[in-house]
């Protein structure tokens, strides 16, 4: 047992760190507090057990008491007295019944503390297991949603490609057929008309006839 009252022979418990569940610091503090209580109880129990039993004085009535001298004329061999346990002497005024009661009470307290520690560990494991199962279910649901979204995107992409490719091909086919040189020949440029007015511009005036040509065409 160390200076802080913790029995290191039992070993400090270790809890797995999980995303959800009990706080690790609170669990460690509670278990350490239980270990200190257990260590003090064990120390008190060892001291109580190491104290020797008080010798019982022989009583009258013909009964043989362990440790009492054999009466004269008795042929019965005396029973051996109980060997005292090693350790410091037991304080005066304490009876074996008090020690037994104290021992039983300490054992019950130790057992209750150990059961409480086991219950806390079991609850922590159950909470961690439940959180792990919940996370696995959420992950599976997210994977299914991702697969559904990818399927929708693939379907929309196919529809978009079919919409873009269909009308464009039908519109380009008549243009190739009406082009000069046929559908397989190259398109030839059309020469612009020089006398044609520009779109949106003023009309060009007609050319005036020359005077010589007017006299030639006049009356004779």
- Determine the mean pLDDT: 70
What's the β-strand tally?
0
User: What percentage of residues falls in helices of 4 or more residues?
Assistant: 40-55%
Query: How large is the radius of gyration?
Result: 57 Å
Order of helices and strands: HHH
Low-confidence stretches: none
Structural class: mainly alpha
Fraction of residues in β-strands? under 5%
- List the total number of helices: 3
Quick one: biggest sheet? none
What distance separates the N and C termini?
A: 153 Å
Bulk shape: rod-shaped
Structure, explained:
The chain has helices at residues 24-50, 96-178, 211-216. With 220 residues, the chain is mainly alpha-helical. It has a domain at 1-52 and 91-136. Helix 1 (24-50) runs antiparallel to helix 2. The mean pLDDT is 70. This is Antigen 84.
């Amino acid at each position: 047992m160390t200076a802080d009252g913790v029995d290191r022979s039992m070993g400090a418990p270790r809890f797995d760190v999980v995303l959800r569940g009990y706080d690790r610091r609170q669990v460690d503090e509670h278990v350490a507090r239980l270990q200190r209580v257990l260590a003090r109880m064990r120390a008190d129990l060892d001291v109580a057990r190491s104290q020797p039993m008080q010798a019982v004085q022989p009583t009258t009535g013909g009964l043989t008491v362990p440790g009492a001298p054999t009466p004269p004329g008795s042929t019965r061999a005396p029973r051996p007295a109980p060997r005292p346990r090693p350790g410091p002497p037991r304080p005066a005024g304490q009876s074996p019944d008090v020690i037994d009661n104290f021992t039983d009470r300490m054992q019950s307290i130790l057992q209750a503390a150990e059961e409480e520690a086991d219950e806390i560990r079991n609850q922590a494991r159950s909470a961690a297991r439940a959180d792990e199962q919940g996370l696995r279910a959420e992950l599976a649901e997210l994977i299914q949603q991702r697969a559904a979204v990818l399927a929708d995107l693939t379907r929309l992409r196919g529809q978009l490609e079919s919409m873009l490719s269909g009308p464009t091909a039908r519109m380009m086919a008549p243009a190739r057929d009406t082009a000069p040189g046929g559908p397989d020949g190259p398109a030839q440029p059309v020469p612009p008309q020089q006398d044609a007015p520009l779109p949106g511009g003023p009309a060009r005036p007609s050319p005036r006839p020359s005077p010589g040509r007017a006299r030639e065409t006049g009356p004779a």
